[in-house]
Design goal:
about 240 residues; mainly alpha; Helix Hairpins; 2 domains; 4-stranded mixed beta sheet; 4 strands
Amino acid sequence: MNIYVKDLVVLSKIDKELDSFNPQIEAINAKVNTAQKKVSELEKKKLTLSKSIEENGFKIASFEEQIVELKAQLDEIKKKSGEVKTEKEIAALSTEEQIAKDKLTYANEEIERLNKANDISAQQLEELQAELDAAVQEAKDIEESVKDEYAKIEESKAELYSKREETVRAMDKKILAFYEKIRNWAGNTAVVKVEKQACMGCYMKINDKAYSDLIKGEDIVTCPHCGRVLYVEAVQNSEA
């Protein structure tokens, strides 16, 4: 195998190993994010319930003020009832009294309804708080557990980066630039082996001349179909 190709194969395998950590990191991040998202959603529910209880409290206070005013109004009507003389005045006062009583009934019913709603919300809030506490603890446990996973990954990556730097320093810079150019679009399939005279990058069969040049190992050979760097395993080479 051409010495330059050997370097490219080694570098390609290192890059592939480095990129293989990405799915692991994404899986860890997804686990942490899922736990944090659960906490966030529960906190939003808690906030919504708390606001509902607070708003109902304001409404109850408003109805209580109305009740005080309506009772004062009914007391005033009662005083006036002994002073009116005409049927028209009596009828008007009776209508005013009935309206005040209806408003008073409505205010009391609304206070009762809002208090019941707040009792239910308070119970839900208590249950939600327990669920939130459990979710927060779970998120902390997950974050703690993934620290070791992150550490192991970072340690492995550091070793590979060191190995990559060593490989890159020994390589011809033009060959490295050539590799990086292909890797920009081919990713971890920039350098692929040939099996049964087919490129394992695009799975197209390469022509006899390209295959012959590859076996000779005198130059870097790229796939005539996709442009990836090709190589053959040592066993294949000896057999050829």
